[in-house]
Automatic annotation (TrEMBL):
<dbReference type="InterPro" id="IPR050598">
    <property type="entry name" value="AminoAcid_Transporter"/>
</dbReference>
<dbReference type="GO" id="GO:0015179">
    <property type="term" value="F:L-amino acid transmembrane transporter activity"/>
</dbReference>
<dbReference type="InterPro" id="IPR002293">
    <property type="entry name" value="AA/rel_permease1"/>
</dbReference>
<feature type="transmembrane region" description="Helical">
    <location>
        <begin position="225"/>
        <end position="244"/>
    </location>
</feature>
<dbReference type="Pfam" id="PF13520">
    <property type="entry name" value="AA_permease_2"/>
</dbReference>
<feature type="transmembrane region" description="Helical">
    <location>
        <begin position="120"/>
        <end position="139"/>
    </location>
</feature>
<feature type="transmembrane region" description="Helical">
    <location>
        <begin position="151"/>
        <end position="170"/>
    </location>
</feature>
<feature type="transmembrane region" description="Helical">
    <location>
        <begin position="84"/>
        <end position="108"/>
    </location>
</feature>
<feature type="transmembrane region" description="Helical">
    <location>
        <begin position="408"/>
        <end position="426"/>
    </location>
</feature>
<keyword id="KW-1133">Transmembrane helix</keyword>
<feature type="transmembrane region" description="Helical">
    <location>
        <begin position="7"/>
        <end position="29"/>
    </location>
</feature>
<keyword id="KW-0472">Membrane</keyword>
<feature type="transmembrane region" description="Helical">
    <location>
        <begin position="41"/>
        <end position="63"/>
    </location>
</feature>
<feature type="transmembrane region" description="Helical">
    <location>
        <begin position="190"/>
        <end position="213"/>
    </location>
</feature>
<protein>
    <submittedName>
        <fullName>Amino acid permease</fullName>
    </submittedName>
</protein>
<feature type="transmembrane region" description="Helical">
    <location>
        <begin position="317"/>
        <end position="344"/>
    </location>
</feature>
<keyword id="KW-0812">Transmembrane</keyword>
Amino acid sequence: MKRQISFGQALATVVGSVIGAGVFFKIGTITAQTGSTSMTLFVWILAGIISIASGLTISEIAASLKINGAIKYLDYTYGRVWGFLFGWAQMIVYFPAQIGALSSIFGVQFVSLFGIKARYSNLIAILLVLFLLGINLIGTKFSSKMQSVITILKIIPIALIIIWGLFNPAKIPAPIIPLTVGTGHSFPTAISQGLLSALFAFEGWIVVTNLANEVKNPEKDLSRAIILGLSAITLIYVLINYTFMTVLPIDQLTNNNNAAFQASMKLFGQFGGKLVTVGILISVYGAVNAFMLTGMRTPYILAQDNLLPFSNKIGKANIHTGVPVVGAFIVDAIAIVMILLGNFTVLTDMLVFVMWTFNTMLSVAVIILRKREPELKRPFKVPWYPIIPIISVIGGIFIVVSTIINQFVLSIIGLTLLGLPIYYYMQKKNN
């Protein structure tokens, strides 16, 4: 594959992968879990700190190892089976579920905005998947440039809400200190549940490591894109949630999925609702494209090591565009099936556990490689080692343990049973 993705395009992929519908919808859930404005902002900041710590930590591996993506990082550190399981989970669950769920949200918002009958929302969602598939098949360079444009466009409505909200003369009190929880909420529960919800909104940044072999200067640009992208996202999330809480009282925010719409109506009038809906459409569109751009590389990477059936076909990229065409069809076909099934709760729970399990393993891998290969050239070193990796590991363990407690059987199935039979079948066949 050609090295044709610039730092700006990699940064846009990070921001575009993370900022989707969550920035508009999570406020209702988190305020219900915390019961206060101060704790709501605190968990957003804490989630940002954990995500940045994870980004800083994994960036050391991304800059040091001349290999492509998190799958290969796990192969290198722990052995091939762990890299395969991560890639399998991404290919079968993570990327299709993200593309399918976000496309479904796009379909629902689209029919609402244009007054189309609700039964056509799934059709709109599928058409979006097919349209973006076509765009990505044109070539990586074209789709990554489009991602840069879409990322800028999706930030515009968010910026308008933040600026208008901060200078709104009719702001209602939204105390940041002291750090308290609402009546009937316990402090530990508010932090754990609120942090869990907020971390979901930061999920997705690691997919940019799939583009490591196509970034022009991966040693510097990949880590810079991850770190700057996550820092910008944290700032955006904190500011927009603070804006919502200065426009609507917390009792109107609690469990309110239309909080962004109602807040914008107060800020901008009748036009505000449509503005937010358009903003959501642009934001979700960009997120779907980012997941599609990176997701199609996962089957390709696994097939390059002959770890999938029909690897000789899946592991090929178009000689003119550099796009792994079969990989794109696999991921998007599963996404369309998920859209038609219409229920992503179980899949989402599973993929969150899987992704944070491997994120934590990658953070631990930095410590392992520091001891195992002290002579390894590290163009980027995680600052304040080992404090930053420890923060990342603790945050990851929190997600993993919380999911195991709530859905133990589902988490075990998601991690092992789905991929291991294929792995050992291919190992036997290859031998």
